[in-house]
Amino acid sequence: MLAILINLVLSIGAYLNRKLTGLGAITASIVGYLYVLFGGWPAWFLLIFFFGASIIISLIKKTLALNHDDNSLTQTEVSKGRSAKQVLANSILGLGCLAGYYYQGNPLWWVLMAASIANSSADTWASEIGIISSKSPLYLVGGQEVAPGLSGGVSILGNLASLGGAFYIASLAGLLTNFGISFSAFLLIFLSGCLCSIIDSLMGQFLQAIYQDDQTQVLYESPGPDRHLIRGYPWMTNNLVNLLSNLLVLGLDFLLMFTFFN
């Protein structure tokens, strides 16, 4: 009952402060409760610290008065608060890992959950902090300049932020667990986040849908009037890129952990 109440209060507060949409708040309440149910309060705190840091970084970015294309998919969704899809993209894989931990009791599942959150954290920090870089981001393959905020672009500042986001979650995971994690597990969580950020950028460059305005030639991540698809697949949204890159790296983590750590 306490877990339900706390998650409701936090989700309502986030909704009133426009950090979550209505459906996003409902989804976050359910996900938060399930994290407590399957992984205990340490898993819940890890998730909350991730979302909390993401909100703080977003506020700092807004304070710096960085104005980018308000019509892009990412910008529009953030201005209205995180949607249910965004909440699930950043938490559903970790929840699946916690279900494995709950039913099998193997702490490796808990470490995998932490790795999934580190993956999301690294990507989020890279996106939110990298956009304030004074230098234009570049594509990983080809090295062409990319408009700030457009998926697929990387910068030195964004890469450093990615390392920070992964290290942040890996460190918290070591502090919050009641069974402790080894240095090898810490390293896996950290490197998992770093790798996921790279995979996310590559998928953003080659697979994510990018549209161009017929009049202004400006690039967008969402469809709209007078926009045509110039790259990627129309169904490959930013949320799906985040989810699939996380899933891909988490699958590699699974193979490594249950082969060498079990």
From TrEMBL:
Q: Which key words tag this protein in UniProt?
A: Membrane, Transmembrane, Transmembrane helix
- Topology in membrane: Multi-pass membrane protein
Q: Write out the transmembrane intervals.
A: 20-38, 44-66, 87-103, 243-261
Per the record, its GO cellular-component terms are: membrane
Q: Which InterPro entries match?
A: DUF92_TMEM19
Give the residues annotated as coiled coil.
Answer: none
* Superkingdom of origin organism: Bacteria
Q: Where in the cell is it found?
A: Membrane
Would you tell me the protein name for this molecule? Putative TIGR00297 family protein
